[in-house]
TrEMBL record, chain A:
Domain ABC-2 type transporter transmembrane: 142-260
Organism from which the protein derives: Agaribacter marinus
Transmembrane segments annotated in the record for this chain: 26-49, 134-154, 175-205, 211-234, 246-264, 461-479
Pfam families: ABC2_membrane_3, DUF3526
UniProt subcellular location: Membrane
Gene Ontology CC, one term: membrane
Name of this chain's protein: ABC transporter permease
TrEMBL record, chain B:
Alphabetical list of InterPro entries matching this protein: DUF3526 (IPR021913)
This protein's record includes keyword Membrane: yes
Organism field: Agaribacter marinus
Pfam families: DUF3526
Keywords, in A-Z order: Membrane, Transmembrane, Transmembrane helix
Record lineage: Bacteria, Pseudomonadati, Pseudomonadota, Gammaproteobacteria, Alteromonadales
Segments crossing the lipid bilayer: 133-153, 181-201, 207-228, 240-259
Protein name (Swiss-Prot/TrEMBL): ABC transporter permease
Length: 483, 417
């Protein structure tokens, strides 16, 4: 048989399959419902994330403006006045909002402290979306496989049950052409489901998302749905009764899409419990006590700093220094303290990541877990991106605090500074010009670079590839068996 | 009677010979065991964490109390642990405890600046949720029930035994009833047995176990009857199962999601960030305002301290510092109340939606009994607010006093719980 004939046979099988779906009506209505769900999830999530993005950028600008608008003050007052950082969602969050609603999206930044992100949207939720939300990611990851099952569970078993298989084979269509044809028909359904995602993906590109990431994202979903198309074909070929094929597929769906993701997260939390911020704070506190209090320039912890400064400028007392000693102390202690805080923060992020990693290993057992991780990682809505936000917010915090300390060192005289509590006049004198507040940096949170995200998603791609390989092999075996 | 028992015996034998029924039952049992075991482990972890925190908190406070002597510094440097312990039923319904915090450390500074700090769990795990017993029952058990009951009639028809069986049985009810009863009881036992064992281990109140068992029973009956009704005569088993799974999708996802969108559209809430912003501006501005301005706002709540002028010294006054902390809370107060009302209103409105969705209704009811729902989290927040208030009431008289502080009084300081 020539290649051309085989191709023709495959296409005609696919065409027949479509004809059967249209005739049976159930398949068509399931498909229409599925598409409507996908499209509405794309529209709703897009509108939602767009609004959030807008809201948070404007709040960020607002925070910057109020900071700059503060009157003349003692620079250390501004260290405690503080600043805000907001996490603007990544462009691809319109397809997979990921952890966005589950982590706080704003951080209050101030001197001597690392605050946690506050106001997670989920905390003001209805509790109704605990089983699933109307995000394109959820719809395609969980409901689309069910849709493929409902449409095609009988694609092969039907031919056996009604004993048309031997007839078709005797007509000269090979078993593989038959399976390929049915697969092709199913593939066209996969294509239809992906259309709304692809359109939203293109929109994300116009919003500044990298094209390669969007292509990778769509490709991942294509592989995922392909895995499910193959699962459906395999089970349909293995069973000779429609009802058996359906029951088996429904069971596999329950196991892989509903049970496994939660088994993964529960296992991760049980095997590798995280200590939580409150508990780490005690350890941080204990270590910080060994450092000096930056508000108290007489703290013995700063004696060394004092000695070295006196020697450097060749003077006898701190009053004679050309720099403000209190500012130097504030700056030095902020540096040391930040060092400690960062070490603990880094550790707890690593712990959290290790915990997440355990749940991601379940991608070898369930393609749903694989695509879930892959999708969030590519979209920039995974835990890594949130950690990136925490790190960048910390950088912003440290830089504005130290800039203020620099102003404290250079622009405020030590004498004015120590006399600040001696009456109204002295209180007013211990200030610096509000022009200094201009040093606050514009903060715009951006997702990890395309390359970083692609690299991170490799393990999940491998998981999907393994699934594809095993299933293709399984179908070959099943095809041989059916002969 | 004898006939019925014989019938049930026969159906029991028949079920034991059906491998796929046994496989489904085994899956139900395994997943239920998994959820109960991990649930107990989670609750134990939470309790252990609270114990460790309590110990660390006490040491930390003792150190601070050792170091400082004046009430102002004592109030500034001592933190207080607050917590909400998991109930004895929490192992079966972990609820919203991975979203709302159940531990907090507060001190006497403006509360609005502290209370939104959250010590949440891993967000990527929280997003997908945990597999607790409630989830197993509300989401998974209906699917297993559908697979077990949709084809009672259809499978026999398919096997060609239908006419034979119907003609030999004394009544169709005796036949299908016995078969359904055997499957139902086996399934119920498989799902509930791990829960009961877990409840005994966790020392759960008997009435709670009874209540949960009854709710699960009713829930099982609902799905079983629905499956039987759908499958009562159609001959295509997959079509029946498709419709049933469609209904499940409707109940578990579609209706709740639509309800969620409607509620969020309907209920307005101030932005959380604004509360913090207002509070911060108020507290920071106070440094530049005259003492009298701040005290005027403070006295509106606490007129008993109108003698503050006698205490005024040239330098820094702690009572003034704490007064403007409270004024910060007062300024943000109405926003904060609106925010909390919106949270409660959203959760309460969701009740009506859950009446349309049996899985959500079961989840809400069980997390309520287990005290792990959003309501429990709101209550905990109120407890923190009460405690903060008690703390202020303890310190204010000392701060607004010219006498030296008697440190023995610390023993009567309010304790959380």
């Amino acid at each position: 048989m020539s290649v051309g004939m085989t191709t023709n046979a495959v296409f005609s099988v696919a065409k027949d399959e479509w004809r059967y779906w249209v005739r049976s009506k159930i398949a068509v209505s399931v498909l229409i419902i599925g598409l409507l769900l996908t499209i509405s999830s794309v529209i709703v999530t897009l509108a939602n994330m767009h609004e959030l993005s807008h809201q948070r950028s404007s709040m960020q600008n607002n925070a910057e403006e109020t900071f700059v608008d503060q009157p003349d003050r003692h620079p250390h007052r501004m260290v405690h006045y503080g600043h805000y950082a907001f996490r603007v969602p990544s462009p691809l969050s319109i397809l997979d909002p990921g952890v966005d609603a589950y982590t706080g999206n704003s951080i209050f930044l101030e001197g001597h402290r690392q605050n946690s992100a506050m106001f997670a949207d989920q905390k003001q939720g209805t509790g109704l979306t605990s089983l699933g939300s109307l995000s394109p990611a959820f719809v395609v990851q969980v409901l689309a496989p069910l849709l493929l099952i409902l449409i095609a569970y009988s694609s092969m078993s039907r031919e056996k049950e009604s004993q048309t298989l031997s007839f078709i084979l005797s007509q000269g269509t090979s078993i593989y052409a038959l399976i390929l044809g049915k697969g092709l028909a199913l593939l066209s359904v996969v294509g239809l489901i992906l259309v709304p995602l692809a359109i939203a993906g293109m929109y994300a590109v116009t919003q500044g998302e990298s094209g390669i990431v969007v292509v990778g994202f769509l490709l991942a979903y294509f592989f995922y749905l392909l895995v499910w198309a193959l699962i459906v074909l395999l089970f349909s070929s293995l069973f000779s009764k429609n009802s058996e094929s359906f029951t088996a597929l429904a069971f596999v769906w329950i196991l892989l899409c509903i049970a496994m993701p939660r088994i993964a997260s529960t296992t991760a939390a049980t095997v590798s419990p995280s200590s939580g911020k409150l508990e780490t704070d005690f350890a941080v506190l204990a270590e910080l006590r060994t450092l000096g209090d930056g508000h108290n320039a007489n703290d013995p912890a700063f004696a060394k700093l004092k000695a070295s400064l006196l020697e450097k400028y060749n003077v006898d007392k701190v009053e004679d220094l050309p720099v403000n000693f209190r500012g130097m102390v504030a700056s030095a202690s902020e540096e040391e303290l930040t060092h400690v805080l960062n070490r603990f923060a880094e550790q707890s992020m690593q712990d959290e990541l290790a915990q997440t990693q355990i749940s991601r290993y379940f991608g070898w057992l369930s393609p749903m877990v694989a695509i879930r991780s892959l999708s969030m990682i590519s979209a920039g809505s995974s835990i890594e991106t949130h950690h990136r936000f925490l790190r960048e917010a910390e950088e912003l915090r440290y830089s504005f605090v130290q800039s203020l300390n620099k102003v404290h060192v250079e622009q405020l005289s030590y004498i004015d500074d120590i006399n600040r509590s001696k009456g109204e006049e002295a209180w007013k004198k211990a200030r610096v010009s509000a022009d200094n507040w201009q040093m606050i940096q514009d903060f715009t949170f951006e997702t990890d670079a395309a390359e970083t995200r692609l690299n991170r998603s490799i393990p999940s791609f491998l998981q999907l590839a393994l699934w594809l390989g095993i299933l293709a092999f399984g179908i070959r075996l099943a095809g041989r068996q059916s002969l | 009677m004898m006939y019925s028992i014989a019938q049930i015996k026969r159906e029991w034998q028949f079920m034991l010979s059906q491998r796929y029924v046994l496989a489904l039952l085994l899956c139900g049992l395994l997943v239920s065991v998994f959820s109960v075991v991990t649930g107990i482990s989670e609750v134990n972890q939470q309790r252990a964490t609270i114990e460790r925190l309590k110990a660390a908190d006490e040491i930390d406070r003792a150190e601070a109390q050792e170091k400082y002597d004046d009430p102002g510094s004592l109030a500034y440097y001592t933190f207080h642990l607050t917590y909400a312990s998991p109930s004895n039923l929490a192992f079966a319904a972990l609820g919203e405890r991975d979203i709302y915090p159940w531990k907090h450390r507060v001190r006497m500074l403006a509360l609005e600046g502290q209370i939104y700090e959250s010590d949440a769990q891993n967000p990527e795990l929280a997003q997908i949720g945990k597999i607790d017993f409630v989830f197993v029952i509300s989401a998974l058990s209906p699917l297993i029930i559908i697979l077990l009951f949709h084809d009672l009639v259809a499978s026999e028809r398919n096997n060609g035994r239908y006419d034979f069986i119907v003609s030999t049985a004394k009544s169709s009810f005796a036949l299908w009833g016995a078969r359904s009863a055997v499957r139902f009881i086996s399934l119920y036992v498989c799902f509930m047995l791990p829960f009961v064992v877990g409840a005994v281990i966790s020392d759960t109140a008997f009435i709670d176990v009874l209540l949960v068992s009854f709710m699960c029973f009713a829930y099982f009956i609902f799905w079983t009857l629905l499956s039987l009704w759908f499958g009562r005569h159609s001959s295509s088993a997959p079509k029946i199962a498709s419709s049933l799974i469609g209904i499940w999708v409707l109940f578990a996802f579609v209706l709740p999601i639509l309800g969620d969108i409607a509620i969020n559209k309907h209920i307005e809430s101030p932005d959380g960030g604004d509360i913090l912003l207002v509070q911060r501006e108020a507290v920071n501005d106070a440094w530049d305002l005259s003492i009298d301005t701040t005290m005027a706002s403070f006295l509106a709540e606490h007129p008993e301290y109108d003698y503050y002028e006698e205490l005024q010294s040239g330098g820094f006054n702690w009572w003034w510092y704490y007064a403007f902390q409270q004024v910060g809370d007062q300024t943000a107060g109405s926003l904060s109340v609106q925010y909390r009302h919106a949270s409660v209103a959203k959760y309460e409105s969701a009740k009506y939606v859950s009446w349309l969705s049996p899985p959500l209704l079961l989840q809400r009811s069980m997390t309520r009994i287990a005290d792990t729902d959003a309501k429990a989290a709101f209550e905990y927040e109120n407890q923190i607010r009460e405690f903060h208030k008690a703390l202020r009431m303890f310190y204010y008289p000392e701060l607004f006093s010219s006498d030296t502080f008697d440190k023995n009084k610390l023993e009567s300081m309010p304790q959380f719980k």
